[in-house]
């Protein structure tokens, strides 16, 4: 079993005359393969910064992120490429990953084209299989993404990330703004996928119910620091 080991990770923003912000301050934790972690904390506590660093979208100012022994934090954009298939991310705003002018199918296929060596037929089978597995109408694949609802776009960007079969998936506020029914549908999709393919999630959320449903443990962030880690106890579900 692999694991991601985050060690003393720090991120500092602001240079020159700007007042520097220490968005992340020496954060350390282990993310074992097969384990799902919720990250909670007040606004501005550093959760999204952590997500961007884990995905190689930004470089830390200090610290390491070791995946199976390789320090992802020290890799150039080019060297990160093979890891894109292993570590994927989905953000609250799907427009960052989806092209609104392209059809849903083309958006889905792009990830498979870039990150796998699947043939056209294999790509179609994978995409249609995922749509079916998660009860999304195939018809949806033909329409431009801009004509889909926010909830549909969110699910599509999630399926896009899952289609490359990542081992680790970082989910930044993917449930916020969804009503309880859509939220439950997404949680079910994720739980089902985890059972089928063994993907590990890092779920950034403000919602204790979602954290409880999906995660095995919870990291609590406070002003850029890791303030604590709680492990799930089944009896607490009654209280939520
Ligand atoms: N690109 C940036 N430039 C300057 N400061 C930044 C930048 N990104 C984040 N910050 C600052 O870093 C701190 C942590 O921000 P971050 O977005 O990681 O928090 P968060 O916990 O995800 O908040 P939220 O729950 O509101 O999304 C905040 O003080 C924020 O203003």
TrEMBL record:
Keywords: ATP-binding, Nucleotide-binding, Transport. GO terms for biological process: transmembrane transport. GO terms for molecular function: ATP binding; ATP hydrolysis activity. Residues 4-239 form the ABC transporter domain. The keyword ATP-binding applies. Gene3D superfamilies: P-loop containing nucleotide triphosphate hydrolases. SMART domains: AAA. Coiled coil: none annotated. This is Peptide/nickel transport system ATP-binding protein/nickel transport system ATP-binding protein.
């Amino acid at each position: 079993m692999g694991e991601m080991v985050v060690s003393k990770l720090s991120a500092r923003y602001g240079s020159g005359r700007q007042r520097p912000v220490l968005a992340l301050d020496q954060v350390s934790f282990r993310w074992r393969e097969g384990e799902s972690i919720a990250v909670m904390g007040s606004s501005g506590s550093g959760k999204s910064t952590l997500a961007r660093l884990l995905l190689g979208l930004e470089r830390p100012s200090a610290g390491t992120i070791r995946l199976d022994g390789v320090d992802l934090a020290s890799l150039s954009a080019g060297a990160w490429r093979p890891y894109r298939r292993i570590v994927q991310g989905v953000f609250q705003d799907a427009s960052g990953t989806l092209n609104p002018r392209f059809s849903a199918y083309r958006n889905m296929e792009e990830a498979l084209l870039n990150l796998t060596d699947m043939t056209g037929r294999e790509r179609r089978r994978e995409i249609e299989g995922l749509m079916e597995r998660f009860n999304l109408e195939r018809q949806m694949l033909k329409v431009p993404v801009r004509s889909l609802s926010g909830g549909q776009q969110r699910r599509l960007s999630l399926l896009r990330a899952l289609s490359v079969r990542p081992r680790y998936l970082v989910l930044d506020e993917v449930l916020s703004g969804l009503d309880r029914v859509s939220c439950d549908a997404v949680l079910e999709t994720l739980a089902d996928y985890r059972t089928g393919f063994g993907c590990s999630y890092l779920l950034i959320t403000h919602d204790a119910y979602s954290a409880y449903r999906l995660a095995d443990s919870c990291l609590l962030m406070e002003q850029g620091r890791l303030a604590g880690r709680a492990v799930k106890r089944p009896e607490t579900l009654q209280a939520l």
